[in-house]
Amino acid sequence: MNRKDLDPDSSPQAAFGARIRRAREAHGWKQEELGDRMGYSATHISAVEVGRKMPTLRFSRSADLVFGTAETADTFESLWREMRLGSLLEGFPQYVGHEGRAVEIRLYNIGIIPGLLQTPEYARVLAESAVRRGAITPEQAEERVSFLAARQAALVRPRPPMVFVILDESCIRRPVGGADVMDAQLARLVEFASLPNTLLQVAPYEIGERRPFDLPVNLLTLSDRSVLCYAESQAQGHLDREPTSVMPMLTAYHQLQGESLSPAASVSTISELRKGIT
After folding, report:
1. Spatial distance between the Cα atoms of 222 and 66, rounded to a whole number of angstroms
2. Edge-to-edge strands, sheet with 104-109
3. Are 93 and 85 in contact (CB under 8 A)?
4. Higher-confidence residue: 88 or 138?
5. Whole-model pTM?
6. Span 3-26, mean pLDDT?
């Protein structure tokens, strides 16, 4: 069989294909054998390895299962997400891979509604704004909106995770996209708060210096009860698995819950705000 050598540095797609080939050869498998294990044809495996075919999310997850990398820090799924969403901050693609399997999700946001709760219209306004600033390309904007829809869909499971959300008051008061977009977004928050597996709270401005976070924070509890933390600034993202640094973040989140409005008062605040928009 002719072997096509591919420069892994030539493109993210080539790097993915080269890694698949290295993993396959390390196991001593032919393309037909790997294809049987992953549920693909040998031709498909070959096309991915040489960069002729773009891998999919399903392909990446199948590779993680076959090669035993699903619960590692360097999964094929995270490589796929980095390839598809190169404009995202470091650590975020890996975070999302865990998010889709978490049993508990805790979010805190400042200024904008968290992605998992955004309406498509709200998300598109933010993406288009980034394009106008020159931060991302129009193609990357489309990827962001599609990617967000896939994240939200991944949480619709037979046994969905428990989702705790604390919104800084700035999230609901900052106008994004005009009255219609904001009204629909706030309506989405009220709908989210009514679900049996959610708890939504607003952290009012009045808590002042008692607010423990100055940046957005995401905390995930996995099925083995381990906790991961993802935090980001404007230019950097960081995924942390170290208990000595993650557990204080979880404690601070619980403290913020105590300072925030009750779920009922939070929904009431959002509903009153909607009256001023419509």
Report:
1. 21
2. 198-203, 162-168, 104-109, 217-221, 227-232, 237-240
3. yes
4. 138
5. 0.70
6. 77
